Each structure stands twice: as C-alpha cells, then as structure tokens.
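Why do we bother with holo predictions? Because pocket geometry can differ from the apo form. Keep that in mind while you read this record for 1,3-dihydroxyacetonephosphate.
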Amino acid sequence: MSRTPLFAGNWKMHKNVAETLEFLEAFLPMAKNVSGEIALCPPFTSLWAAAERLKGSGLKIGAQNMHWEDKGAFTGEISPAMLKEIPCDYVIIGHSERRQHFAETDETVNRKVKSALKYAITPIICVGESLEQREKGQTLSVVLSQVEKALEGVDIHDGNELVFAYEPIWAIGTGKVAMPSDAQEVIGALRKKLSELYSVQVSKNTRILYGGSVKPENIRDLMAEPDIDGALVGGASLDADTFYRIAAYDQS
Ligand SMILES: O=C(CO)COP(=O)(O)O
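The structure, written out:
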C-alpha cells in the first residue's frame, strides 16, 4: 500500500500541560520504533507545550476543532491562523461529539475544511452514523452524504491534502468496535465516492482512518482490511504504552 498509515490520538478534554508532558516523556522513546505516522491531538491549552516538546521528533500535532474565520468577534473560538502559529499539522473537523453537543453541521464542517486547506492544515474529517441509522440500513447514505457535503466546492488535487475518519457513533467510547468487514464496507464506499467526486488518484491517495473503541487487541484485524489506513483513537490514546501498542501493531 502506498498510503502511510496514520495513528492519531484524540485526547478530547483530557490532559493539562503537566500531564501532556508526562505522557510525552514516556511516549517519545517508544514512538521511535513506529513505522507509520503518529499525530497527537491534545486540548488547545496543551497544544503549544506539546508542539515545543515534539520538535525534531517526527511526531505530528493536531487540534480537535477550529473556527473557519481568520479572526473576529467569536468569543471562545480559535482560528486557523492561531493553529498555524503553533504550528499544527492537523485539525479534527466534524467529530460526532461536536455534531451532537456543539451544533456542528455539515455546512460548518464544509466551511472549516475549506479554511483548514487555505492554511495548509490537514483536516481529519469525521463522518459516521448513529446506531438508529445503522439499524434502519441508512449507514452508507448517511456517511456518503456527510462526505459530499463536507467536500462541496473543495478543490482536491492529489488526495494528500486531507484525511477522513469513519467513526460510527455507536462505537465511540462504548467498547463496541465495528466488525472490521463492516468498517471496510463503509470505508471502501467512501473511497469509491472520492473517485467519483475527484479522480482515481485522489481516491487512491486519500487516507481513511477508522475510529471507535480501537485497542491494541483489535487494531491488527482492522489494519488487515485493504482500505483502512490507520486509526483515530480516543480513550486508548491517553496511556502512552497502550497507544504505542496500537501504533506499533505490526511489530509483535
Ligand atoms: O471518538 C473517538 C476518536 O475520535 C473514538 O473514541 P474511543 O477510542 O474512546 O472510542
């Protein structure tokens, strides 16, 4: 496979600066053995400290959200220009927790994707269906509609500009991982959609991650699927040894 696997840790609202540095102290020596790419996405308040510590390590850093405007009267928001200053390599956009609790919509996701690309910050665009939608057989239509709307009016040239994460909502933080073959079915359909919307090259180059209860015990089976290029890991990325065992799944 020509796509470099990506293991991104979404820390959500966990780890202050001291805890972030403590994690990195333990994680950095281990991470040297990982052949794929690693990105850590701490809360905003820990981004700068993490980025300073990660300098020269080869590890990437990402934010968990951003506003689409450069600046302005948006109390409590963080702009892409501010993330670029850190500098962030990635930004997670459209996570289901933001869609559920913070009024993120397909339209705001689309604005944020365009803005991240303008600043050359790679968006990790999250899509995924609820349990109810899955049980009604709507999984593919829901996910592909989220993908189409996220990409409306978005120029993509070779597919290296962005990353997708398929995160079924019912698998997030529940311990219920999707069957690798089910995740493959959705991710394969997403890849096919990219070739319809753009080109075969874009579809081949775009990395598509799986997220939802990823653990050292299930990563190998997920990675054995042809279209799964890595993982967006929540809870299991908070512990250095556990996250290492996920990213180094191919070494034992
Ligand atoms: O939401 C997730 C990553 O963005 C997944 O969270 P868990 O790995 O804790 O299920």
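The beta strands are 6-10, 37-41, 60-63, 90-93, 122-127, 163-166, 207-211, 230-233.
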